[in-house]
Specification:
Layout (H helix, E strand, L loop, with lengths): L2 H6 L3 H10 L5 H8 L3 H13 L3 E13 L1 H9 L2 H9 L14 H13 L3 E4 L2 E4 L1 H7 L4 H6 L5 E2 L5 H11 L5 E13 L1 H7 L14 H6 L26 H15 L3 E2 L5 E3 H4 L32 H13 L13 H4 L2 E3 L4 H10 L7 E10 L11 E10 L5 H14 L5 E8 L2 E11 L4 E11 L1 H8 L5 E4 L3 H9 L12 H6 L6
Parallel strand pairs: 6-9
Antiparallel strand pairs: 1-4, 1-5, 2-3, 7-8, 9-10, 10-14, 11-12, 12-13, 13-14
């Protein structure tokens, strides 16, 4: 496309931006100079880039900008300078100072005392020779405030950094924040365009009903369209990638013949701990690990008295010759309401309702859990866990490994391995690892095993093999999406949400 055809294809927004591109290369200056909105300028720049008239580059930089007080001080001067000016006319008490607001007087005195510019004697402030010298020249801070903002911290000189650090200690004079800077570089085509005087309105860019009815369109010249150029991506609304992955994983379990277990996020300690053979004095039941409910501290135990008696007996006396935990098992402790720290409570509830004619049976859960964790890259207060149980008199440990391998294969991990491990309510137990195909490393996901008889006998009435697992689902997401910080899963970063694709189906 020659220059004439290119000019004929320009959108009105592009034409409005061109004169500004002649003077400026930074995005914020282009916005100010063109009197257009940010989004309008960005659209125009993207269209011009598609036409190979310019190149857009983005870089994150630390910028210094004026804050509320900084903007005001440019007009009236820094408080310390105004105080020196007033004291140059003679000593004054604090009540006699008229040029400063009450809150500014303390700020000015503090700044000037550090520079030995004032003295307090017999209740009066007076200027020192050092103060007189300061009054006759502009301070580094004053010179800094006169600069053209925003400033890049990387471009500051040593004395400017000194002034910046002093101003940062004071309230709302300047603010420092990281921002993405957009810079424009004109190509040869772009330089030729900005050298020409192009007016808006010379070409018609749309065919209106009025033009058609009147027949005036016959005498008009329309803007040229190039259908071959790339257009800016338009991102429509879509579900959060975590929600998509959760739904996909649920479908995987159902395709494998599992039924979903659902339940409330608030559960009693009975289902969360006692049915899982966790001793009532275990540290996991403390505030440091578990979120307790203050508004409704106690829930109710199930109506099945035999179940309660069986759980109590397992804790106090054990089963099959095991000694249990000893001591006295407390119903009051078991009634305590908590936010569920795992979805295994759903497994214990499901087992308690299962009848012999319902076996064999397979169940899964995938839901939100809560633990009083220290927040960091690998731990959150809230997280998703996927739970599964298989209840089958003929089930074996080999079956457990097969189910897990199949699930992770469908989730995109071709290789899985299992390491011997210890978990409170399974025996034998394994740790689940999957091989990350991009990072070429093994990713630890969680535990699995066969429920101990201390669980199955009270819940089922007899010892029946129960395969169980409960890996953290958020770790699976981190591995799949190559996210290094778990907090990024829920940061709602729009750029991230637009780029991340749905789970591979």
């Amino acid at each position: 496309m020659d220059t004439t055809q290119l000019i004929e294809s320009l959108h009105p927004l592009e034409i409005k931006v061109l004169p500004s591109l002649k003077k400026y290369s930074k995005f914020e200056y282009l916005v100010k100079d063109s009197n257009l909105k940010d989004v309008e300028v960005m659209r125009a720049l993207q269209w011009l880039e598609n036409k190979k008239a310019l190149v857009i580059s983005k870089e994150e930089k630390e910028l210094v900008e004026l804050d509320v007080n900084g903007t005001a001080y440019i007009k009236v001067g820094l408080p310390e300078k105004r105080l020196l000016t007033e004291l140059s006319k003679g000593p004054k008490t604090l009540n006699e100072i008229n040029s400063l607001e009450k809150q500014e007087i303390g700020i000015a005195i503090g700044a000037l005392k550090q520079k030995a510019a004032i003295l307090m004697d017999q209740g009066k402030l007076s200027i020192t020779p050092q103060g007189t010298s300061l009054l006759e020249k502009e301070s580094l801070e004053e010179l800094f405030l006169k600069k053209s903002f925003p400033l890049e911290t990387s471009t500051l000189k040593e004395e400017e950094v000194f002034a910046l650090n002093n101003l940062k200690k004071r309230k709302q004079i300047i603010k420092v924040e990281k921002r993405k800077l957009i810079t424009i570089e004109l190509t040869d085509i772009g330089k030729e365009l900005v050298s020409k005087e192009i007016k808006v309105g010379e070409l018609i860019d749309r065919l209106t009903p009025e033009l058609i009815k009147s027949g005036k369109w016959k005498d008009k010249k329309f803007r040229r369209y190039d259908v071959s150029i790339n257009v800016p991506q338009i991102d429509g609304g879509k579900r959060h990638f975590v929600s998509q992955a959760l739904e996909y994983a649920k479908q995987v379990w159902m395709d494998m013949g599992f039924k979903e277990m659902v339940g409330q996020k608030i559960q009693t300690s009975f289902w969360n701990f006692d049915t899982l053979f966790t001793p009532q004095d275990h540290p996991v039941r403390e505030m440091q690990d578990t979120f307790f409910i203050k508004t409704v501290e106690k829930g109710s135990l199930p109506k099945d008295k035999k179940l309660i008696a069986a759980v109590k007996d397992a804790h106090e006396n054990g089963v099959q010759g095991n000694h249990g935990w000893g001591g006295v098992w407390s119903e009051e402790i078991a009634k305590t309401n908590i936010l569920r720290p795992h979805t295994t409570c759903l497994s214990s509830k499901t087992l308690s309702k299962l009848k012999k004619e319902d076996m064999p049976a397979k169940f899964f859960a995938l839901g939100r859990c809560f633990r009083n964790e220290s927040l960091d890259w690998s731990h959150l207060f809230e997280f998703n866990q996927t739970e599964g149980i298989v209840v089958d008199p003929d089930a074996t440990f080999r079956n457990l490994l097969g189910y897990l391998k199949q699930f992770f294969k469908k989730m995109g991990f071709e290789k899985a391995r299992f390491r011997p491990a210890f978990f409170p309510y399974t025996e034998p137990s394994v740790e689940i690892d999957v091989f990350h195909p991009v990072h070429k490393t093994w990713l630890e996901l969680g535990g699995a095993g066969m429920f101990r008889p201390e669980l199955t006998i009270p819940l089922l009435g007899e010892e029946i093999p129960v395969l169980a697992w409960g890996p953290g689902f958020d770790r699976i997401l981190m591995g799949y999406y190559e996210i290094n910080d778990m907090r990024e899963l829920y940061s709602n970063d729009l750029e991230q949400l637009r780029k991340i694709k749905a789970w591979n189906k």
